[in-house]
Amino acid sequence: MSERDSGSEESTDGSLTVEEEQGEDIEEERLLASGMECKPLVISERQRRKYNEALRELYELARLRREELETGESGGDEMENNRSEMDAVGREMGSVPPRLEDIHRELMEISRKLQMENEKLYEREVELRQRETNVEEMEAMVRDSHNLLEKCAEQEVNKRWTQMTEKHELERTELEESVKQKVRENKRLKTSFETVRQTNDTLKQQLVDVQERNQKLESQLVSVQRRLTNLQRKSEFALRQQAAAAEIPSEDHMSAGHQTHRQTPSGALKSQKAAIPLGVFEVVAFLFEWITSVHQRERERTQRTQSLVFTQERCCKILPRLSDLLPILPSGNSKLHYPCLQFVFWSLMHLEEGGRQKMALSSTLRRIGEELYRPMGRRVADTSSGSVTASGQSGERVDVSHKANFFHSHSLHVRLLSSLIILKTLTQVDHLAHVFDSLRSELKEDAAKDLFLQHRGVSVILPYLKMTHRGLMASAVDVFLQLSMESAFLPRFLEHCSNEEYFHLCSTLLHDPKLDVKLQEKLCIILQRLSKIRANHKLFEMFQLGRLLQDMLRCANPEDAFLTLNLRSILLNLNLLTH
Question: pTM higher than 0.85, yes or no?
Answer without folding.
Answer: no
